[in-house]
Each structure stands twice: as structure tokens, then as C-alpha cells.
Amino acid sequence: MAKIKLDLHDIYNKGKSIDAELNRVISEAVDKGIALIEIIPGKGSGQLKKTVLRFLEQKHIRELYHRVEKDSKNWGRLFIHFKKGN
Fold it and tell me: How far apart (Å, rounded) are the C-alpha atoms in residues 10 and 71?
């Protein structure tokens, strides 16, 4: 299964860069028919993860993916699952 991985550690304090990277990987997944994005906001205080989750809940973004999975073994990681045949 094809997957895209996005590690946000390097841009954790750059709000516009975070949104741009999230938009980029979601567009790439949709364009290439990739089924899964792994996003690593890191553990930290949890603020970056909350930022990512808020971004994903935007109506125009929410329409693009099937579901968000929070990793039960590593709470510093999220998986975005896309519908088959985007």
C-alpha cells in the first residue's frame, strides 16, 4: 500500500508552513490515489497535533479523506485514510 509520511518536527512553530505542507500532502495523495498519509506532529505539548486535527476538520479538507486514525501506541502520530479510488 502506498503511503506518504509527513514529519512536522522541523516546522512545528511555523503556522503557515504547517498548513501549506498539509495541503501539499493531501493534494498529492488525492492526485496520485494514495490511500494513507502518516502525519507525525510529535508528542510535545499536544498543541501541534491539535492544530493538525483542526486543519483536517475544515469542511473542504474533510470531504477529501475517509477517516483520521490516532495511533493508539504512539500518540504523536496520526493516519489519514483516503477512500479507494479518490
Answer: 21
- Three cell numbers, residue 59: 469542511
Closest to 79 in 3D by CA, of 39, 48, 50, 26: 39
Residues of the chain short of pLDDT 70, as ranges, are 1, 12-15, 84-86
Whole-prediction pTM: 0.85
Domain ranges in the chain are 3-81
At the topology level of CATH, where does 3-81 sit? Ribosomal Protein S8; Chain: A, domain 1 (3.30.1370)
Please check whether residue 6 is in contact with residue 25, taking contact to mean a CB–CB distance below 8 angstroms.
yes
Contact, 26 vs 37, CB < 8 A? yes
Query: For residues 82 and 12, what is the distance between their CA atoms, to the nearest angstrom?
Result: 24
d(CA 86, CA 46): 30
